[in-house]
């Protein structure tokens, strides 16, 4: 199975920054260094990052985009409806991925188990290196005045030095108020 993803979302000073590394691993071999795992949806108003199977994530991106259109960009409603579909549809429930989606107002975690979670704090991470990235981002968030983009960048740089499934190729998207 392909694996090797780290996605981090940081919200600070009315800015959401979401970043991912670019590594894709098959067993103990790196097969891609620059996979783009963070994308913009709904005319650039929503940022989504994924961990898990790429084909499954692309399917979920398309489904989320359709739900965002259906609910006029209401991220929470679109995510809840997608989560219902993901959990109950015979084909969708087999998809193996996790998503982080964010807009100007909120950041949400979605999984195939039916989860739609808005974190208590302004940091959220997923993937093989998610725990490392979260710890680094939390330390930077609590002990510096760095901007969201800087925290996301530095946390992935730190993670890339610790986690064998995370590299130093970083893709970043931001949403400002």
Structure commentary:
By secondary structure, the protein is α+β, with helices and mostly antiparallel strands. It has a single domain, classed as 4-Layer Sandwich (Glutamine Phosphoribosylpyrophosphate, subunit 1, domain 1). Helices cover 34% and strands 33% of the residues. It has helices spanning 54-70, 75-88, 130-143, 148-162; strands at residues 2-3, 6-12, 15-21, 24-26, 29-32, 38-41, 46-52, 97-102, 107-111, 116-117, 123-127, 170-176. The protein has a five-stranded antiparallel beta sheet with strand order 6-7-8-9-10. The chain has a four-stranded antiparallel beta sheet with strand order 11-2-3-12, with helices on one face. A three-stranded antiparallel beta sheet has the order 1-4-5, with no helix packed on it. The mean pLDDT is 90.
């Amino acid at each position: 199975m392909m694996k090797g993803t780290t996605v981090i979302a940081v919200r600070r000073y009315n800015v959401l920054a979401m970043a991912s590394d670019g590594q894709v691993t098959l067993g103990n071999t790196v097969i891609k260094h620059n996979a783009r795992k963070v994308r913009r949806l709904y005319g650039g108003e929503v940022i989504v990052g994924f961990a898990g199977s790429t084909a499954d994530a692309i399917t979920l991106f398309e489904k989320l985009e359709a739900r965002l259109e259906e609910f006029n960009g209401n991220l929470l409603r679109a995510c809840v409806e997608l989560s219902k579909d993901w959990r109950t549809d015979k084909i969708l429930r087999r998809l193996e991925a996790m998503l982080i989606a964010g807009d100007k107002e909120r950041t949400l975690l979605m999984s195939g188990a039916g989860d739609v979670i808005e974190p208590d704090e302004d940091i959220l991470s997923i993937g093989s290196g998610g725990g490392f990235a979260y710890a680094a981002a939390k330390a930077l968030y609590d002990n510096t005045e760095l901007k969201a983009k800087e925290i996301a960048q530095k946390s992935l740089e730190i993670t890339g030095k610790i986690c064998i499934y995370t590299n130093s190729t970083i893709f970043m998207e931001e949403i400002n108020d």
